[in-house]
Design a protein that fits this description.
By secondary structure, this protein is an alpha/beta fold. The protein folds into two domains: 49 residues, Helicase, Ruva Protein, domain 3 (Orthogonal Bundle), CATH 1.10.8.420; 95 residues, 3-Layer(aba) Sandwich (Dna Topoisomerase Vi A Subunit, Chain: A, domain 2), CATH 3.40.1360.10. It is built from eight helices and six strands; from the N terminus they run αααββαβαβαβαβα. Strands 4-3-5-6 form a four-stranded parallel sheet. α1 crosses α2. The mean pLDDT is 91.
């Protein structure tokens, strides 16, 4: 027996399908929608429908785009000789927020993970190799996540790309700002030491 009317149950079920939303969070969101004005619920529904209808993957880098190509690929101000390889579109946003990178991107749409059934053929690796054919890209920055899958993906790509004469670099990983050395694990501390730079 359900404690809620059928439309509420359906809303709760759909909300719980979202990543990071459990039963309690789904209830809070559902009740917020129910208590709000009809216009607010309509705006939310319209925004969801619009984003599904208008946003797709950029045909060049596979980031999200509302046009044929994304704003980064379309920009004449970006350095076209360097491409930062990331796993997901949200990683592009994280790098852009630093204000330190001004090249192009390539979104793999995941990372190599044999346990999850994801091999190189499920990623946008072939498309990346096509981008390197004309010789205009001189450096690939591997910005995959610092976990087993991300490291595996970065190493796999480095082996594929090095024979093409393209420089392959890896973003440094190490201690977070404000972190204490005593709480750092050996791998993190080791990487921080390897990626040290002159002051």
């Amino acid at each position: 027996m359900s404690y809620y009317a059928e439309p509420i149950v359906r809303l709760l079920e759909e909300l719980e399908r979202l990543p990071g939303i459990g039963p309690k969070s789904a209830q809070r969101i559902a009740f917020h929608i129910l208590k709000g004005a009809d216009e607010a619920a309509s705006r939310l529904a319209d925004a969801i429908v619009e984003v599904r209808r208008k946003v797709h993957f950029c045909r060049v880098c596979f980031n999200f785009a509302s046009d044929d190509i994304c704003e980064y690929c379309a920009s004449v101000d970006r350095d076209r000789s360097i491409v930062c390889v990331v796993e997901e579109p949200r990683d592009v946003v994280a790098i852009e927020r630093t204000g330190e990178y001004h090249g192009l991107y390539h979104v793999l749409q995941g990372a190599i993970s044999p346990l999850d059934g994801v091999g190189p053929e499920q990623l946008r690796i072939t498309e990346l190799l096509h981008r390197l054919e004309d010789g205009s890209v001189t450096e690939l920055v591997m910005a995959t996540n610092p976990n087993v899958e991300g490291e595996t993906t970065a190493l796999y790509l480095a082996r594929l790309v090095k024979p093409l004469g393209v420089r392959v670099t890896r973003i440094a990983s190490g201690l977070p700002v404000g972190g204490d050395l005593e709480f750092a694990d050996e791998a993190t501390l080791g990487r921080a030491l390897e990626a040290r730079r002159e002051m």
